[in-house]
What does this fold into?
Amino acid sequence: MKKIILATNNLHKIEEIQSFLLPLGFEIHSARDTAIPKTEEDQSTLQGNALKKARETFQATGILSLADDTGLEVYSLDMRPGVYSSRYAGENVSYEDNNKKLIHELSGLASDKRGARFRTVIAIVGDGFKKTVEGIVEGSILETLRGVQGFGYDPLFVPNGSVKTYAEMTIEEKNTLSHRARALEKAVEVLKKI
Ligand code: IMP
It folds into this structure.
């Protein structure tokens, strides 16, 4: 059976990614199954971090590696927090801390100034092989949290065309339209050709 390893410890990401890869017949592993050190995400772009995570995981395991790096880009914040989305409120902060900061920074802004997009870059690295793909979803940021599913900024983000936040969707619903799903659809096409 073909093997692939997901270069992440994030259970939410693993769950979202798995459903796209299972139909391809891969035996799916993740960084949680190995003792490989966590990649330092010190690159200045999502693409740089995704490639670094996938490359280091491939080098450590010899298994075809898939890494995702995602950022929330808010137009009125000049596309911040972007590549720094996990550290928006500081080092070692919680999702709650980041959401509180976002609510605070956007407080008082009218709905037409609350536009944002989620952008995911997926990198796939194997023996003599390296490829990145991207998925983007446009939407807006609410003034208060809504919903309990998912992770990260999900309770604040409403994709355009939806009345629900990501956190009010089941994983199946989120997987029909999310930034990660869009990148994964492209990644699946890449993996089919390997
Ligand atoms: P990462 O570096 O790709 O793990 O993502 C950076 C940060 O973006 C995470 O800590 C989350 O706060 C946020 N994030 C990533 N993906 C999602 C998502 O699908 N929904 C909501 N927030 C996300």
About this structure: The pocket of inosinic acid is lined by residues 41, 68-70, 72, 85-86, 95, 98, 150-154, 166, 180 (CB under 6 Å). Helices lie at 11-21, 46-61, 95-105, 171-177, 179-193. The first helix runs from residue 11 to 21. The chain has a mean pLDDT of 97.
